[in-house]
Amino acid sequence: MVLVSFVLVSVVLVVGYTVFLRSYLTTGIDLFLEFRLEEAASIYLEQMDAASDASLPHSKGLMAYTDYDALPSLITDTFTAEELGKIRFAQCSAGKVHYKLHRFRKPDGSDAYMVLHLLEGTISKEARRRFDRYHLYTPVTAGLVVIGVILALGYWVFFKLLARPVEELHEWVMGLKTDTLESDIREFKYDELNQIAALIRSTSQRLIAGAEREKRFQRYASHELRTPIAVLQNNLELMQMQGVTEDIRFHASWERMNKAVRNMRHLTSSLLWVSRDMDRPVPREEISLDRLIPEIIDENAYLLVGKGINLRTDFRSGVIAGHQVLVRIIVGNLIRNAFQHSYEGEVSIMAGPEGMVIVNDLSGEDSEGTTGYGLGLQLSEQLVDKLGWSIRIDKMSGKFSVRLDFSSPPAAGHAD
After folding, report:
1. The pTM is what?
2. Rounded CA separation 115/111 (Å)
């Protein structure tokens, strides 16, 4: 954008200078010819003062007339005597013939005319070259030099005085780190840049503080929830051992409680991993998707009980390198989200070494609202980001789809 502005300014300057030069040159020639005619008339009047019978000047290209009718026919055809009597200078042209006329008054009060006759093509090539050199090439060259100097100064002012400090601000921002944010304080050349730097620093501090608060909440919440969930799980197992599930009056209630406890256990595991600082590489191992995914489907099959869901799977054999626990949590959250928020239609799960795609039908109510995007899915997005993978979520035409891409190698770390 800056370069385009400089080019536009240069074009405007060149065009303006060219127009000005043409006008200046034409005006200068007219003034020169008028000066020459006035000078010839003054010499003639001085000669008349010395001798009243002084002859009229008559030379090649310069002639004097005392009678209007004696003027060249081109002049008399162009101007009447009354018109010439009202002006001091006049000019007319026809083809290559040009006349420049100066009307002046003799001592006796009568008018006389000094006429300069110009004919194109009578100037020698050497004279034309000298004229072009002094009156055309020199001004144009000087103008181009001036424009070049202006552009060079503009470039220096912008890129050295303005762009460089902004570039330094950019480099400072890109080099900011969490541990050096408080100590890395730099003074820039302009107060406005210092204000921007202070705003960026304060905003970064607020964002970091907010992220730390969120991380602490996730860590505390996961730890605090694990104890009551464990108590509930133990009590459910105890109730099952005592035969509660065999009583038709309590079986449905026990199943609902067991589902809720399972979901909460998975969510607390996800919260715990999301809250961890991943700054060192985690141990990776080969994971067989065509073995892992069926296990997770079996673990969450209870979410499809009583629903008119058609489950379609397509697994291609292959392995991926990743952290066993993290991959299980992520894949489990995605599958559980699809099962939990589907009530009819079809759930399709396709997986291979490149990635996994889950597509489920949405009911009429879900397709108009935000249902289908559960907390487990949101936590999975954060875990995927920590691993350096990518996830894409689409919702359109009554379908909710999630695509997990394994192409990027995990770049995670484990908890401090």
Report:
1. 0.47
2. 13
Query: What are the φ and ψ backbone dihedral angles of 57, each rounded to 5 degrees?
Result: -65, 135
By CB atoms closer than 10 A (0-12, 13-18, 19+), residue 5 is exposed
Q: How confident is the model at residue 278 (pLDDT cuts 50, 70, 90)?
A: low
DSSP state of 32: H
The burial class, CB within 10 Å (0-12 / 13-18 / 19+), for 379 is buried
Residue type, 311: L
Containing H/E element for 142?
helix 138-156
Question: Crossing angle of helices 375-387/248-274, nearest 10°?
Answer: 30
Burial class (CB in 10 A: 0-12, 13-18, 19+), 365: exposed
Three-state DSSP at 393 gives strand
Mean pLDDT, rounded, for 392-409? 82
**Strands of the 97-105 sheet, one edge to the other:** 58-59, 62-65, 111-119, 97-105, 89-94
Work out the burial of residue 209: count CB atoms within 10 Å of its CB; fewer than 13 is exposed, 13-18 middle, 19 or more buried: exposed
Residue type, 14: V
pLDDT digits (tens, 9 = 90+) for 158-211: 777 777 788 888 888 887 777 777 777 777 777 888 888 888 888 888 888 877
- Vertex 240 angle, CA 236 and 243, to 5°: 145
Q: Which amino acid is at 24?
A: Y
